[in-house]
Amino acid sequence: MDEDALREFxxxxxxxxxxxxxxxxxxxxxxxxxxxxxxxxxxxxxxRVRDHGALExxxxxxxxxxxxxxxxxxxxxxxxxxxxxxxxxxxxxxxRIEHDAMWSLLRALPARQRAVLVLRYYExxxxxxxxxxxxxxxxxxxxxxxxxxxxxxxxLTRQTTxxxxxxxxxx
Length: 171
Known about the structure:
Elements (H helix, E strand, L loop, with lengths): L2 H23 L2 H18 L9 H18 L21 H14 L3 H12 L4 H8 L3 H30 L4
Helix pairs in contact: 1-2, 1-3, 2-3, 3-6, 5-7, 6-7
């Protein structure tokens, strides 16, 4: 087993993989756990990996399937807080509003649809690469992407209408 090749891969790609993990789970600590779990699974499967050129796709697929199994369990339903702040601090809210709104809309999507959108629009993978990474057909990738984008558009429209109703704005 050539562990040096795996070590070099992890050193070179861990930043991008951590970003993908964060986009899948939405929390830095959970993303680190997800990446670590995926890398451990990859290490254990290393003797069976034939195409080391497809290693990144293997790790991404492992992260997506692991995150999906976590979503099905209790792991992401409860978030303990160590301490509650006594007072609010100044926070640059404006740059984060759109990011947070989009993230909450993404989190509302089913896990497979979210994984397809993350891999397509945040990671820039092609439909074929996504199909390979998630072990689904290209048609299923297209279907998940289409349904997810339709759901996001519908939710954005409803959210905008609700916000306008609250503020009295007419379009």
